[in-house]
Design a protein that fits this description.
Elements lengths: L4 E4 L6 E8 L4 E6 L15 E6 L3 E3 L10 E4 L1 H4 L3 H5 L7 H4 L3 H4 L2 E8 L2 E6 L4 E4 L4 E3 H18 L5 H19 L6 H8 L3 H15 L5 H9 L14 H16 L15 E4 L18 H17 L4 E6 L5 E7 L10 E7 L10 E4 L39 H12 L18 H27 L6 H23 L23 H20 L7
Parallel strand pairs: 11-12
Antiparallel strand pairs: 1-2, 1-5, 2-3, 3-4, 6-7, 6-10, 7-8, 8-9, 12-13, 13-14, 14-15
Pfam family, one: SH3-B_UBE2O
Organism: Oryza sativa subsp. japonica
EC number: 2.3.2.23
Length: 537
């Protein structure tokens, strides 16, 4: 929205103020800020305005505020106030606030946006306009301070006070130096380093007294962090019966005849048994050496189903030395914003499988291109008990299989309208606003999918290197042709389908989407070329 402080997705050091937004075309007018020099976090007045794609911007992690938020001046503006602050009392009453008036101009409450800045009412009663980079949200400061305090406490309890002060000053200097070019939180960390514990107690008491803020952050977090469970060695010792059954299980694994596959190229080989799982996400998981005979038979059954019934667009690799691990690759289906892209998942069968569903990790490359697939690799799906579901949607130890899981990921997650995957959003399907938001989501999903392609080509998962090369060699012409069609106005997922009209009546892709795609396309072509894939933009 207008007045928000944003930063460029591709160049995080570039920040500015949003002056206007065209929601229909997904374009934004931004006044970019110009740094005074490389050693300070303040900015000059020479702002240049530019129209950019909304897909290029994200809210600045430090400079985004909401009305009513309690703030303090940032490190570069508050440094001179610490001496007065550290000598103040911890318990602050309204009567004693007057004695701390020198500091009351450093803590305030956001009233709203005003003239490319923020209107703030200070604890002293004064109201003034400030720039986004001059203040920091108090809650964020407290969170970062708590984190640093816990780290310091657990590092070495025997460090004397003089050494702690030396470390404290060095960390302050380092954090302030980093804050000049980093927009991912170092500024507020630098500010956090400038305060003693007494200072934070003073701040939280002032905020609570004047603005109704709560000061329970420290106690709840610290208490939660100190709860650990201790397991005795005796509990980990296997019984004679367990050892005997383990021996029988290992013999069964040794006797199990691995599938033999006919000679196939990487594109047609759906199922394969390989060795070396060193890059698998769950390689360090334990328990596979102590599994029951029923577990082995169930995995054999899963392998047999995958070998015989895999549909086109799903490719699986299992490991000869680790039956509890599996890696799958799904090909994005036509008609979706994920068309022609590859999606990799690492799967782990727990010792109590199939009574518990497998664990699944998505290779995200740090991108969030679907509501069910997180940047961290977490996969939200009812079959995995990581998403709400009922009936046949949830894991059934008697009937559910890995093939069912993979089909669900391909059909239910990587679908034509992933916007409606979000919890509760299905009720907006078919409604004008919902369909409009779905088109916007698809545009962004395709842009992220293009970025994902470059990530996969640069670092293909082990045992899929040849498949990745052959797949994109085959699909690159279609991918680039679709990009050209989208630049011409076709809707995502419907390239060269001029007759297609969305459910909300939209016929053309947005201007903001086309601006961003035009910037990504040359990079995608370069990535294809570097991988030895012949193509032309």
């Amino acid at each position: 929205m207008a007045g928000d402080w944003a930063c460029h997705r591709l160049r995080c050091q570039r920040t500015g103020i949003v002056t206007s937004v065209d929601a229909l075309e997904r374009t934004v007018k931004v006044k970019w800020a110009v740094s005074v020099d490389s050693d300070t976090v303040s900015y000059g007045d020479g702002l240049t305005e530019e129209t950019v794609s909304a897909y290029e911007l994200v809210l600045h992690p430090d400079f985004s505020f909401f009305t009513g938020e309690v703030i303090i001046r940032s490190a570069v503006n508050i440094e001179n106030s610490e001496a007065n602050l550290t000598n103040g009392t911890v318990a602050v009453s309204r009567e004693s606030l007057d004695t701390s008036s020198a500091f009351l101009s450093c803590i305030g409450n956001v009233l709203g946006y005003n003239d490319e800045g923020l209107e703030v009412q200070w604890a002293s009663g004064a109201i003034s306009r400030v720039q986004h980079f001059e203040i920091i949200a108090l809650d964020r400061i407290l969170d970062d301070s708590l984190e640093s305090m816990i780290e310091e406490h657990t590092t070495d309890d025997l460090v004397d006070m003089a050494e702690q002060e030396k470390m404290h000053l060095e960390d302050t200097k380092s954090a302030l130096e980093e804050s000049a070019g980093d927009c991912t939180g170092s500024l507020r960390k630098a500010t956090a380093f400038l305060f003693s514990k007494t200072a934070f107690n003073f701040l939280t008491n002032v905020a609570s007294s004047l603005f109704g803020a709560h000061d329970s952050t420290f106690s709840s977090s610290v208490n939660a962090d100190s709860q650990y469970q201790i397991v005795t060695t005796a509990e980990l010792q296997p019984s004679a019966e367990d050892i005997s059954e383990e021996k029988q299980t290992m013999e069964l694994i040794t006797q199990f005849e691995k599938p033999t596959l006919a000679s196939e190229n990487a594109m047609t080989k759906g199922f394969d048994v390989v060795t070396d799982c060193s890059d698998h996400h769950f390689v360090k998981e334990i328990g596979h050496e102590n599994v029951k005979r029923g577990w082995v038979k169930k995995i054999q059954q899963e392998w047999s189903i995958l070998q015989n019934d895999l549909p086109d667009g799903i490719h699986v690799r299992v490991y000869e030395e680790r039956m509890d691990l599996l890696r799958a690759c799904l090909v994005g289906a036509a008609g979706t914003p994920y068309h022609d892209n590859l999606f990799f998942f690492d799967i782990f069968f727990p010792p109590d499988y199939p009574h518990e569903p497998p664990s699944v990790h998505y290779h995200s490359g740090g991108l969030r291109l679907n509501p069910n697939l997180y940047e961290s690799g977490k996969v939200c799906l009812s079959l995995l008990k990581t998403w709400a579901g009922t009936g046949s949607e949830v894991w059934d130890p008697e009937n559910s299989t890995v093939l069912q899981l993979l089909l669900s990921l391909q059909a239910l997650v990587l679908n034509e309208k992933p916007y409606f995957n979000e919890a509760g959003y299905d009720k907006f399907m078919g409604k004008a606003d919902g369909e409009k938001n779905s088109i916007t989501y698809n545009e962004n999903a395709f842009l992220l999918s293009c970025k994902s392609m470059t990530y996969i080509l640069h670092k293909p998962p082990k045992h899929f290197e040849n498949f990745v090369k052959e797949h994109f060699t085959c699909c690159a012409p279609h991918i680039l042709d679709a990009c050209k069609a989208y630049l011409g106005g076709d809707l995502v997922g419907h390239a060269r389908d001029s007759a297609y009209i969305s459910d909300d009546g939209c016929k053309n892709s947005s201007t903001g989407f086309k601006i961003m795609l035009a910037k990504l396309l040359p990079k995608l072509v370069t990535t294809f070329s570097e991988a030895g894939i012949p193509c032309s933009p």
